[in-house]
Design a protein that fits this description.
Elements: E1 2-6, E2 9-13, E3 18-23, E4 43-48, E5 72-79, E6 115-124, E7 127-136, H1 142-154, E8 156-157
Antiparallel strand pairs: 1-2, 2-8, 3-4, 4-5, 5-7, 6-7
């Protein structure tokens, strides 16, 4: 396991995983919630059990296209402070574990055959996030969810 820390986010990455914590440059701000959303950029975490391509979108475009059977992509995307306390982000804290029944091809940002995903919106430490997980699997999500849960269990988020 290797510790990854930055921008108030701390998480343990399993051996062999590729992961980054970053913030888009301010000139590249694209409000995610539409009119009235903060133009500032916030933290994004990408983690995968496969080599992440250098060019990736916030929710993993560029990475999901190269995923193969058995690959996992975990995205943690931070929204602006105006999202904290809104109904979409009402859940308190990140999930510490996911179950296989949470995954569906309907939860994907873009449907790719052989992939399934889940999205969880939550607030913690006066910050709002979306956890987006994509699994590339032909056999069902069970084994791959087991790879994600230790990452989630180790996730710590501090106030910004």
């Amino acid at each position: 396991m290797a510790r990854l820390s930055g921008l108030g986010i701390d998480v343990e990455m399993p051996s062999g995983w590729d992961a980054r914590i970053y913030r888009r440059p301010p000139g590249d701000a694209r409000p995610a919630l539409g009119a009235g959303a903060s133009p500032a950029t916030h933290a994004v975490v990408h983690a995968g059990n496969f080599p992440l391509p250098a060019a990736r979108g916030d929710f993993g475009s560029g990475a999901v296209e190269v995923m193969r059977n058995g690959d996992v992509l975990v995205v943690l995307f931070e929204y602006g402070p105006e999202s904290v306390g809104t109904p979409l982000f009402a859940a308190a804290g990140p999930p510490r574990a996911l179950t296989a029944d949470r995954f569906s091809s309907r939860a994907l940002q873009r449907v790719i055959p052989g992939q399934m995903g889940t999205q969880v919106f939550f607030s913690t430490a006066n910050r709002a996030f979306c956890l987006y997980v994509v699994l590339a699997t032909q056999a069902g999500p069970g084994r791959l969810v087991g790879l994600v849960n230790p990452v989630l269990a180790s996730l710590r988020i501090a106030p910004s």
